[in-house]
Amino acid sequence: MANSQSQGQKGASPNQQASEDWSHIEDQHERRRVQNRIAQRTYRARKKNEAEEAARVAENQQVAGAAYRAPNAEDMARNDNPSGLPSV
């Protein structure tokens, strides 16, 4: 089954798809200008996604770091009857 959208144009609006089709442009300078515009848009979208992913990773590490803490000896000394251990 043929897909009407190429891989580079998934999710693009019909107007963007029309402006991104540079195959019919014969003027070399105009063609390159359109290709550069498409490449710049792709680059910005990729950088935005990378920044969002980095922010998510940083937030997840911060939340996970606050949620998990190894107990130390002082914590054990304060608790006379730690949970999970049989009573003596």
Question: Care to describe what's here?
Answer:
- The protein is mainly alpha-helical.
- The chain contains three helices and no strands.
- The longest helix has 40 residues, at 28-67.
- The protein is rod-shaped and about 85 Å long.
Write the layout of secondary structure elements.
Elements: H1 14-20, H2 28-67, H3 73-78
Radius of gyration: 28 Å
Any idea what the shape is? Answer: rod-shaped
Report the strand count: 0
Strand content: under 5%
Helix vs. strand class:
mainly alpha
Q: What is the quaternary state of this protein?
A: single chain
Uncertain stretches: 1-9
Could you list some keywords that capture this structure?
88 residues; mainly alpha; 3 helices; 60% helix; rod-shaped
Summarize the structure.
This protein has helices at 14-20, 28-67, 73-78. With 88 residues, it is mainly α.
